[in-house]
Design a protein that fits this description.
- With about 260 residues, this protein is an alpha/beta fold.
- It has a single domain, classed as Rossmann fold.
- The chain is about 40% helix and about 20% strand.
- It contains 13 helices and nine strands.
- Strands 1, 2, 3, 4, 5, 6, 7, 8 and 9 form a nine-stranded mixed sheet that branches.
Length: about 260
């Protein structure tokens, strides 16, 4: 794993990011989408690059059998302590699991940090190999303009303009110190389905998670006061082509052909 990316995740902040503040919207919308597309529990779910187990925890609580595979030792240590979850070190591009051994494979972090397209397709191809025919593969990506929108929202664009403009032009974000993230690939809205298809997973559908809501100045109030209405509104427009690319995060889903 890239040393800079590893050091970022060894800070141990990813769990808190999704459970507090505005990051809750990403977590709740991921749950909302996955609970509709995954097989009914109990199913065998492989959570690839599952971090400290934020998603593995609720998946296990829902009744799924969850195996988490992650390249960060701290993440594996924390996830291993979650009831109903097994965790081990591993690489999304080489899962070392039997063919057709899972009902669903999730890649909710790996594609962020595989900046080469060949590596992303390889990871998706591994997921397609491990999932059973008819099983589900779901992967999360960051929107191509997420850094631009975030820096504008937080009034930091002028200070980070060179980095942000490069991410828009090339898709590769190489943040300066203090920017709040690490090296990542930012997808155009139409890229994930094409990468899925090249990995043997045709017919993928993308779901924009946050829509425009993550750019609202009063998002925290909405999440605290009217979460249900906000989630319903975002669900209604989650696959509108002209809005998918506005989301900070997108989940793309396909079934392995029978």
């Amino acid at each position: 794993m890239d040393g800079e990316v590893l050091r970022y995740y060894e800070r141990g902040e990813e769990d808190r990011r999704l459970r507090e503040g505005n990051g809750r919207l990403e977590l709740w919308r991921t749950q909302d989408v996955l609970r509709r597309v995954l097989p009914a529990p109990p199913a065998r779910v492989v959570d690839v690059g599952g971090g400290p187990g934020v998603h593995a925890e609720w998946l296990a609580a829902d009744g799924h059998e969850v195996e988490l595979v992650d390249p960060v030792p701290l993440h594996v240590e924390r996830a291993a302590g979650i009831p109903g979850v097994t965790a081990r070190l591993g690489d999304a591009r080489d899962l070392r699991l039997p063919d057709a051994s899972a009902d669903a494979v999730l890649l909710l972090w790996p594609l962020y940090h595989l900046v080469e397209r060949a590596d992303r397709v390889r990871a998706l191809r591994e997921a397609a190999r491990v999932v059973r025919p008819g099983g589900v593969v779901a992967a999360a990506t960051i929107g191509r303009h997420a850094a631009l929108h975030d820096m504008l929202r937080t009034r930091r664009y002028q200070g980070e303009r060179a980095v942000v403009d490069a991410s828009v032009a090339t898709g590769v974000l190489r943040p300066a110190p203090g920017m709040g993230f690490t090296t990542a690939y930012l997808h155009e809205a139409d890229e994930p389905p094409r990468e899925f298809a090249d990995a043997g997973l045709p017919g993928a559908r993308s779901y924009g998670l946050e829509g425009t809501a993550w750019l609202f100045g009063n998002l925290g109030e909405l999440l605290d006061e009217d979460r249900a209405t906000l989630l319903e509104a975002l669900r209604a427009v989650e696959s509108v082509p002209s809005l998918i690319g506005v989301s900070g995060h997108v989940v793309t889903v396909a079934a392995r052909p029978a």
